[in-house]
């Protein structure tokens, strides 16, 4: 949640705007984006950091379970990125986390049904892949943001677009 002034400045200097996503490949930090948005859509607390990224207080410790809001979140992400005319979306999930294989299958099924241009990868070290990518990445993980070449605040954009629909969700602005 907290960051130094230089970290915030550096992160914001690499942050892209929505119109810069057109015809680009976007790589999503799977569990990071999914869990933040599941928290928001379920009415749990999400917090806006100094770097404008939203974060939750949930954590994944080796296991993940789908919740009632999971499909709604995935559709919100898919529809948002389709409207942004993204060329391709690559979801990366932590392979060691239980149920990541089931999540991969669920995303593939949803992507075929809704014609989302998605690839889903399971990796042992997704943070390193995201941090070193030449594509646009989406995460709120500070370690990745500090190393990324370029990024888009996907969870922030979706949260702010849906804010009016979730009046009971409390956001703590900077």
From TrEMBL:
Organism ancestry: Bacteria, Pseudomonadati, Bacteroidota, Flavobacteriia, Flavobacteriales
Start and end residues of each DUF5616 domain: 19-155
Top-level lineage group: Bacteria
Name of the protein described by the UniProt record: DUF434 domain-containing protein
PANTHER family: DUF434 DOMAIN-CONTAINING PROTEIN, DUF5616 DOMAIN-CONTAINING PROTEIN
Organism (species): Dokdonia ponticola
Matching Pfam families: DUF5616
InterPro entries: DUF5616 (IPR041652)
């Amino acid at each position: 949640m907290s960051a130094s002034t230089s970290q915030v400045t550096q992160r914001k200097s690499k942050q892209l705007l929505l119109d810069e996503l057109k015809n680009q490949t976007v790589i999503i930090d799977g569990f990071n984006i999914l869990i933040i948005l599941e928290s928001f859509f379920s009415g749990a607390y999400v917090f806006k950091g100094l770097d404008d990224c939203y974060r939750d207080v949930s954590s994944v410790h080796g296991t993940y379970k789908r919740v009632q809001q999971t499909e709604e979140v995935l559709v919100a992400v898919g529809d948002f990125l389709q409207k942004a005319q993204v060329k391709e979306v690559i979801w990366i999930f932590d392979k060691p986390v239980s149920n990541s294989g089931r999540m991969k299958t669920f995303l593939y099924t949803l992507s075929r049904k809704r014609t989302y241009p998605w690839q889903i990868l399971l990796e042992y070290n997704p943070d390193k892949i995201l941090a070193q990518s030449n594509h646009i990445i989406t995460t709120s993980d500070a370690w990745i943001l500090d190393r990324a070449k370029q990024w888009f605040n996907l969870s922030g954009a979706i949260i702010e677009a849906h804010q009016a629909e979730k009046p009971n969700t409390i956001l703590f602005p900077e």
